[in-house]
Specification:
The chain has one domain. 64% of the residues lie in helices and 9% in strands. The protein has eight helices and four strands; from the N terminus they run ααβββαβααααα. The strands form two sheets. The chain has a two-stranded antiparallel sheet. Helix 5 crosses helix 7. The protein is globular and about 45 Å long. The chain starts with a helix and ends with a helix. The relative contact order is 0.14.
Length: 211
């Protein structure tokens, strides 16, 4: 299930990414991009939630954020940790400074926690069961994979723009940086990350030729 906080994050990310894609074009184009990105994110999130359920865990998607990024630990004593919403800042800033040429499509990350059932099954009731990097990598990889599959289906049923946006979304989220899915996949399994990168590059190649 998607909770209210996730819905707000997904809608916010959809608006930001639709702005990045269209960059001050007409309202009709913006609304089409908004709908396409919204469904791409929903599909991606559903894939990850399904994978998390298979690991007896739960995920919650949210706007990509980093706390006290690139600040000295000595400066943090007695201070409140500062949160930087990279999922809003990076796409918007890159789009504006490049006049719409750079279309950064990564805006969401996810937190994961094991359910009580998983902890009880593996370690006894009230015990804590943390997921491994392999588990996190598979959860994130599932989201990327279903996004690519949905993009292929979109092309064959006559929605080429949906296909292009979906492949772009997968490509940027595969970047192994920060808390993005690509970082989780890379440290979970370089082989799976490499496989998804190859699939995405093939998809990007065909979007430039066919779309």
């Amino acid at each position: 299930m998607i909770n209210k906080r996730e819905i707000i994050s997904i809608i916010t990310a959809s608006i930001i990414l639709a702005f990045v894609i269209t960059f001050l074009k007409d309202l009709t184009t913006f609304l089409y991009a908004l709908g396409a990105v919204f469904f791409i994110i929903i599909i991606n999130t559903a894939g990850k939630k399904w994978a998390a359920h298979a690991f007896d865990s739960e995920i919650e998607v949210k706007i990509w954020e980093e706390k006290n990024y690139m600040r000295s630990p000595n400066k943090l004593k007695g201070q409140k940790r500062q949160t930087y919403y990279f999922g809003i800042l990076i796409p918007a800033i890159l789009s504006i400074v490049s006049f719409g040429y750079i279309k950064w499509m990564a805006a969401l990350i996810f937190d994961v926690k094991a359910t009580v059932y998983r902890a009880a099954k593996h370690h006894g009731l009230y015990a804590f069961s943390e997921l491994t990097e392999w588990d996190l990598g598979l959860i994130a990889a599932t989201g990327i994979f279903v996004t690519l599959i949905a993009s292929i289906i979109g092309y064959f049923i006559g929605f080429p723009s949906f296909t292009k946006y979906g492949i772009y979304y997968a490509a940027f989220n595969l970047i192994p940086f920060g808390n993005l899915d690509g970082n989780k996949i890379f440290f979970g399994s370089v082989v799976i990350w490499s496989f998804l990168v190859i699939l995405t590059l093939i998809g990007l190649f065909y979007t430039f030729i066919l779309i």
